[in-house]
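Renewal narrative, Specific Aim 1. Our central claim is that a sequence can be written position by position from structural information alone. The example that follows is taken directly from our test logs and has not been curated for this report. It begins with the C-alpha cells describing the chain, in the order in which they were read.
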C-alpha cells in the first residue's frame, strides 16, 4: 500500500512480456479471494448443519466427495462461505509441492461451504473461471505457489493475502474462452495417449513376467542346450557348491579359534548346519541337467542392511536406501550419506554381483524388487568402494 492508502502498482519488472492485448494484474483484481471458515468445537453441532469441503477433498482439477464432513453454519455465515459453481478452491495448507493445488467447484455438492484449509477464488465479471483454473494449475506445476508459501509445523501455507497479491496474466475475454477450449482439446488427446500407454504398460508387464518365467523354466535356452550339451549337470554343480560352503565355514571357525588362542574342541565340525533343500513334491519338472535348490543352499549370506538413517550431509559414507533399488538396476542418484558411522560396517558393504531386495514398499508391484548389476557395466561397488546398504527405509 502507498502512503495515501491506495494499492501500489504491480511490479512487472521481472515478469515475462505478454501478447498484445494482454496485461498483468493481481489475483485480487480479477477475482475475490476468501479464506474458509475455521473448524472449532462449537460448530460441531447446531441447527444449521451443512457439508463443507476441506483440503482432503480438493485435488488437482478434481473434487473428491468420498469423505465429506459437516458443521454448523448460521444463515449469515452460509452466505459468506457457500460455494457457487465456478468457484476455484486452492489448498491453503499442504505439503510444499502440493500447496495451492486447485480444483473448480461444479456444484457437485449443492449447498456446500468450505473450511480454512482452503482458499476460494471467485472470478469477477469478464474472467472465465476455467481460464483462472488453468493459470493456477500452471502456478502449481511451475512452483510459483511454493515461492510464496510459508512453513508452519511442517505444513506449507499458501496464505490468502499472499495469493491475492501475486500476478495474473489477463487475456481478453474471448481469448480466455479460446484458450480453455484449446487446452481441453489437447488435454483430451493427452488423456487418450496416457490411457493407451497404460494399456501398453500392462501388456509389457505381462510380457516381462512371461519372459522371466520362460527363462527360469529353461524354455528360452531349449535350442541352445540341444547344441551345447552341459559339461556338468546342475546336481553336480550343487554338490560342489555345498562342499565349498562347508569348507568355507570350517575355515572361518578355525580362524576364530586361532584368533582366540584356542584349540578346536572335539566334534566341532558337527556343529555345521547343513542347508535344507527345497520340497520338490509340488515343484514343476525341470529340463534335463537342471535341478532344484533352495536359496539357503546357494547364498553366502542373507541379512538386513545397516540400521542407521542417513544425514543431510553431501559427503561421508555412501548408503543405499529403498529408493535406490529399482527393477534390475541400482539408482545411484538416490544415494545418501552417513556423516558418522556407528559401529563396524564391514559386513554391510555392497559388492559386485550382490542382489538387493526391498523389504517393504507402499506399492505391491515393487515389493521384493531385486537389483542386480548389468554385465559389463560399472556397479555400485565399483563406483563407490564403501557403500553400506540401509534398512531403515526397507532395503
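The sequence written for that structure reads:
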Amino acid at each position: 500500500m502507498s502512503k495515501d492508502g491506495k494499492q501500489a502498482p504491480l511490479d512487472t519488472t521481472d515478469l515475462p512480456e505478454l501478447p498484445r492485448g494482454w496485461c498483468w494484474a493481481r489475483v485480487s483484481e480479477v477475482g475475490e479471494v476468501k479464506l474458509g471458515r475455521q473448524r472449532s468445537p462449537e460448530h460441531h453441532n447446531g441447527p444449521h448443519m451443512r457439508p463443507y469441503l476441506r483440503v482432503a477433498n480438493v485435488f488437482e482439477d478434481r473434487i473428491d466427495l468420498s469423505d465429506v464432513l459437516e458443521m454448523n453454519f448460521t444463515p449469515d455465515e452460509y452466505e459468506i462461505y457457500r460455494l457457487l459453481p465456478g468457484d476455484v478452491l486452492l489448498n491453503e495448507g499442504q505439503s510444499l509441492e502440493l500447496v495451492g493445488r486447485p480444483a473448480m467447484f461444479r456444484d457437485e455438492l449443492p449447498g456446500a461451504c468450505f473450511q480454512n484449509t482452503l482458499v476460494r477464488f471467485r472470478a469477477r465479471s469478464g474472467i472465465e473461471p476455467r481460464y483462472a483454473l488453468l493459470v493456477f494449475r500452471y502456478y502449481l506445476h511451475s512452483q510459483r505457489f511454493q515461492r510464496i508459501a510459508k512453513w508452519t509445523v511442517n505444513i506449507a501455507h499458501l496464505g490468502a493475502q499472499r495469493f491475492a497479491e501475486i500476478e495474473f496474466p489477463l487475456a481478453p475475454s474471448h481469448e480466455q474462452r479460446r484458450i480453455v477450449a484449446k487446452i481441453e482439446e489437447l488435454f483430451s488427446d493427452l488423456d487418450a495417449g496416457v490411457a493407451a500407454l497404460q494399456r501398453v504398460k500392462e501388456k509389457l508387464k505381462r510380457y516381462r513376467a512371461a519372459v522371466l518365467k520362460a527363462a527360469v523354466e529353461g524354455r528360452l535356452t531349449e535350442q541352445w542346450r540341444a547344441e551345447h550339451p552341459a559339461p556338468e549337470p546342475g546336481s553336480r554343480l550343487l554338490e560342489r557348491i555345498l562342499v565349498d560352503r562347508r569348507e568355507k565355514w570350517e575355515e572361518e571357525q578355525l580362524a576364530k579359534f586361532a584368533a582366540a588362542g584356542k584349540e578346536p574342541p572335539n566334534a566341532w565340525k558337527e556343529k555345521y548346519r547343513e542347508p535344507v533343500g527345497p520340497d520338490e513334491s509340488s515343484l514343476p519338472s525341470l529340463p534335463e541337467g537342471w535341478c532344484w535348490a533352495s536359496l539357503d543352499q546357494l547364498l553366502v549370506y542373507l541379512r538386513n542392511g545397516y540400521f542407521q538413517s542417513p544425514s543431510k550431509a553431501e559427503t561421508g559414507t555412501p548408503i543405499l536406501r529403498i529408493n535406490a533399488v529399482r527393477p534390475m538396476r541400482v539408482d545411484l542418484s538416490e544415494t545418501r550419506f552417513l556423516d558418522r558411522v556407528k559401529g563396524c560396517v564391514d559386513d554391510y558393504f555392497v559388492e559386485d554381483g550382490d542382489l538387493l531386495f526391498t523389504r517393504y514398499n507402499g506399492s505391491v508391484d515393487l515389493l521384493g524388487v531385486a537389483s542386480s548389476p548389468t554385465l559389463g557395466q560399472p556397479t555400485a561397488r565399483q563406483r563407490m568402494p564403501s557403500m553400506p546398504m540401509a534398512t531403515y527405509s526397507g532395503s
